[in-house]
Amino acid sequence: MPPRGSQRRSLHDFQQLAGWVIWALNVCPLLWPGLSAVYDKTRGKIRSNGKISISKAAVRDLSWFAAHLKRSDGVQLLEELDWDPCDAEVTVFCDASLLGLGFFFDGCSMAFQARPPSAALQNSLALEALCVCWALHEVERLLMPVFKMVVIWTDSLDTVDIFSSLSAKPLYNEILKSAVDVLIRTNLKLHVCHIEGRKNIVTDALSRYLNDTAHKACPGLYIDDSQAPPSLHWPTAAPPKRRLRSARRVVPHNVHIIPPSSG
């Protein structure tokens, strides 16, 4: 074992920790984002006794996981995970561009619009995911506890992938954790679905601050630009040059998870 206070652990230690976390995820499946940094640190590693540094991101993710797990009652009802988006009580359409974020509530002609946070500029996937997260926060602020089932439409397949798998690269994981915080706090049920960009007319216009176009597409639309997306801890890594798919929950073939012992 490494000396007390060491900031490095073996690959075996990371795998064993991941095994314990996955065991707990059987009853707390919303907490998958807690493994993002661990997967990122161990990806591609094969030497069991090879030392890996403990990153600040891993500490944040695992602390977040532990805090939620401690408060959990350990009961997971399967029927709560499987519902038809057609049964949604709230429908939201989202879009983002390098100029802004926009979303609106279908059926009530209320829209929200904001400039991108400076830390997320030039990263289109981060902005798309942040817009979905922001919409979820506004659902909590405005519509809880009246409605429980929410469907959010986005024209970003990568964003759908992130929220469907509950897994993301560390660069986007803070967004995902913020959304999960809302789901756990409110017991909201969420589906994030894909819509073709050409059909996402109103929010495309909102995200580009083409408000005249948005009003033409949705007469009577009220646009609130006084709210801001949730404030998050943004990693300092440089934004990717292209969109990146999220880190799937499936463990890579070269990463061996050590399950907890029965004893």
TrEMBL record:
<keyword id="KW-0812">Transmembrane</keyword>
<keyword id="KW-1133">Transmembrane helix</keyword>
<feature type="transmembrane region" description="Helical">
    <location>
        <begin position="20"/>
        <end position="39"/>
    </location>
</feature>
<protein>
    <submittedName>
        <fullName>Uncharacterized protein</fullName>
    </submittedName>
</protein>
<keyword id="KW-0472">Membrane</keyword>
<dbReference type="InterPro" id="IPR052055">
    <property type="entry name" value="Hepadnavirus_pol/RT"/>
</dbReference>
